[in-house]
Amino acid sequence: MAVKELRESPSLSSLYPKALLGSLRKSGGSTLPSTEFVREGVVVDPAHLAAYNQVCGFRLGDVLPATYPHILAFPLQMALMTEPDFPFPLLGMVHVGNRITQHRPLRLDESFTLRVRAEDLRPHEKGKQFDVLSELLVGDSPVWTDISTYLRRGGGSGEKTSRGQLSQPSPNAIWHVPGDIGRRYAEVSGDRNPIHLHPITAKAFGFPAAIAHGMWTKAHALAAFEGRLPEAFTVDVKFKQPVLLPAKAAFTTWSEGRDWAFELWNARKPKPHLEGSVVAL
Description:
Strand order of the largest sheet: 1-2-4-5-6-3-8-11-10-9-7
Protein name: MaoC-like domain-containing protein
Number of strands: 11
Family: Belongs to the enoyl-CoA hydratase/isomerase family.
Strand content: 35-45%
Distance between the termini: 30 Å
Largest sheet: 11 strands, mixed
Number of helices: 6
Order of helices and strands: EHEHHEEEEEHHHEEEE
CATH topology of the largest domain: Thiol Ester Dehydrase, Chain A
Mean pLDDT: 91
Oligomer: single chain
CATH superfamily of the largest domain: Hotdog Thioesterase
Structural class: alpha+beta
InterPro entries: HotDog_dom_sf (IPR029069), MaoC-like_dom (IPR002539)
């Protein structure tokens, strides 16, 4: 595997034009690049962490929420997926799942090495899917991993996978999601995909309104477990129907031994937005 070492985080302002050009030039492929992006000496800005915690609903502190390092990895993920040898255009891809494993609590004063690569291109009933793997290391030891699964629609197998579907549960909480949460999360995450920012730009991509970021819904769900999380755990989610902004969503959780399961639903219709689990290691 080829390693591409970076001295600083890639500039998102330069990557978005590359993503737009890629949507015009790329049509697909059968292989993923064998390049791994690596950045050493990654540190956390306390002010940025505080802003992230406020937007996502976490308490302020010197321990990173398990979803926060995804923000550190996002520029490298974009750099990887806008490279000329990446087979799919970034625009139009669907984020269908995210699995984060925290091997131990991560502290604000630590310095990390960040690695990002793509792997496991495979068929999907609606097209092709693949994983983008991101890792944080301290020394040579991985302390955090993130697997984001993306779907490229078109030319799918047509073979539907069986999915259990629960009836709409009684909520533990009602989320009143404001219409500007997409812009607020974009400010702290750098993810300025136009489908999240404004109804007009979202409609240009086929959505009736702006939609919340999937990783915001995951982070906000994880914030509900603060004070009950073990030091080492995996939080895994599948993204279902988009959260159209503004929204009223029903959030429910239940325990499974020492683990947890959770779901987010449209509060007005029996349509799931997200399902997930927290499993202790």
